[in-house]
Design goal:
Elements: E1 7-12, H1 15-23, E2 32-35, E3 43-46, H2 48-51, H3 61-67, E4 72-74, H4 78-93, E5 99-103, E6 106-110, H5 122-136, E7 142-147, H6 150-159, E8 165-167, H7 173-177, H8 190-198, H9 204-207, H10 212-219, H11 221-231, E9 247-258, H12 261-281, E10 286-295, E11 300-311, H13 314-326, E12 334-342, H14 368-375, E13 382-385, E14 389-397, E15 400-404, E16 415-419, E17 425-427
Parallel strand pairs: 2-4, 7-8
Antiparallel strand pairs: 1-6, 1-7, 2-3, 5-6, 9-12, 10-11, 10-12, 13-14, 13-17, 14-15, 15-16
Helix pairs in contact: 4-5, 10-11, 12-13
The structure holds magnesium ion.
Magnesium ion binds at residues 11-12, 15, 105-106.
Length: 436
């Protein structure tokens, strides 16, 4: 472990929901839930206002609606998220060339690899960074942790979250970590937590009473070894600028093309549960869930979604796999199905929870507007009206669409309802140009 606090972890606060509140003035200070809006949708991010009602990421959207019926439920605008992420990652690269993004809203930075890093000025560096992020993204806030290891930097960024920072002074790592719940250790998922609870382990200090061998009997040798070390804040993993994609997947080729959606859904769920078992057996958890399908004509698609937090939970993975399959057109049937989870989220992943887009290579691509019209308006989507100007879809159904006319710079705006096929209304790009 290094002797200076020179690994920085930055995590944007309630990222997707914050981008929505930034761009939709009427939602500021209100509960907002971003995620799958369909019957089987899963929450991706909840604003802090929604979290007060018990809404959490990876919860089913149905449960979130039951807990917080007055929240705004939005389908997500990946272009806008990617733009904000690009701005933040570029700012981090000004600190050091060694930046390891974990997802759109989270990254490690090896400050010591930067040109003029001064360990005496970490506090100033952090406050300048956080202020710049907020200014350049037009109001998003970030939480930052700095420590001598990745483990402690990540934990430190949670301590004063949201909109805060914590610097772990070298030498104090074990003291900072000791009183925390074992779930503070990244990778300790629900299954491991439950097994540890049965051993009477709640905090990291409790964990330190056990030898690695003792733990191994309960959580498996691999998990035990890493738990033993991490409980003592012993972590020398380097910040890796190039992502190493670790993934666990299960796939199956069928003897005959399968066309029955119910049967395929059952298979996908079963595969997801097998992936979860393998994750747990290896002491891993992952955030990006990928579904792979091969059609009768050998055309192969993969479709992924990134959860806001890592999971090794069979139920969550099964629900996510099911949702991904729901979005696939089964056409003439499938000859192969696979489900995988990667430990490091692919942060340049395409739009994750929108409705399926038509295949682009064979059919001429319909305009954004036409695609939106074909699939119906999506809640939260950016639109423009020839008479009323720019706004966003507040809700739709029964042949009608309701739009709130406001933008990032405007005050809270009025709501108007139109026929869903009103030619005066069209979809609008979320960002005019995407920053590198
Ligand atoms: Mg975040």
């Amino acid at each position: 472990m290094r002797s200076t606090a020179s690994i920085l972890h930055l995590d944007l606060d309630a990222f997707f929901a914050s981008v929505e509140q930034r761009d939709k003035p009427s939602l500021r200070g209100k509960p907002v839930v971003v995620g799958g809006v369909g019957a089987r949708g899963v929450v991706s991010t909840a604003s802090y206002e929604a979290r007060k009602f018990g809404v959490r990421s990876a919860m089913s959207s149905a449960e979130a609606r039951a807990r917080c019926p007055h929240a705004a439920f939005l389908g997500g605008r990946f272009d806008a998220y990617r733009e904000a992420s690009g701005i933040v990652m570029a700012r981090l690269r000004e600190l050091s060339p060694v930046v390891q993004p974990l997802s759109l809203d989270e990254a490690f930075v090896d400050l010591a690899a930067g040109d003029d890093f001064d360990p005496e000025r970490v506090e100033e560096l952090v406050e300048e960074l956080r202020a710049d992020v907020t200014r350049r993204t037009h109001g998003l806030t970030a939480s930052v942790g700095v420590a001598s290891s990745k483990l402690m930097a990540k934990i430190a960024s949670e301590i004063n979250k949201p909109d805060g920072a914590f610097i772990v002074q070298p030498g104090t790592e074990a003291d900072v970590l000791g009183p925390m719940q074992v779930t503070a250790i990244p990778g300790v998922g629900p299954a491991t937590t439950e097994r540890l609870r049965r051993l009477g382990v709640a905090t990291v200090e409790d964990l330190r009473r056990f030898t690695a061998d003792d733990l191994g009997a309960h959580v498996g040798p691999t998990t035990a070894t890493s738990l033993y070390r991490l409980a003592r804040a012993d972590d020398d993993r380097p910040v890796e600028a190039s992502r190493e994609t670790k993934s666990i997947s299960v796939e199956d080729t069928f003897e005959t093309n399968l066309v029955d959606r119910v049967q395929l859904t059952a298979i996908a769920e079963q595969m997801a549960r097998r992936v979860a078992q393998r994750l747990r057996a290896n002491g891993l958890s992952g955030r990006t869930v990928t579904l792979k399908v091969r059609y009768h004509d050998f055309e192969t698609h993969t479709r992924s979604t990134t959860l806001t937090g890592p999971t090794d939970h069979g139920g969550v993975l099964a629900a996510t796999a099911r949702r991904l399959l729901d979005a696939e057109d089964l056409g003439g049937g499938l000859r192969l199905l696979g489900v995988g989870v990667s430990g490091l989220a692919d942060w340049v992943q395409d739009d994750l929870f929108s409705e399926p887009e038509p295949e682009e290579d064979l059919v001429p691509l319909p305009s954004r507007d036409e695609r939106a019209r074909r699939r119906g308006w999506s809640p939260g989507q950016d639109v423009t009206h020839t008479e009323h100007g720019d706004g966003w879809v507040w809700g739709s159904g029964l042949g009608l669409v309701t739009v709130r006319f406001e933008t990032r710079e405007s005050p809270s705006g009025p709501v108007k309802t139109f026929p869903a096929d009103d030619p005066a209304l069209s979809a609008r790009a979320s960002v005019s140009s995407v920053e590198p």
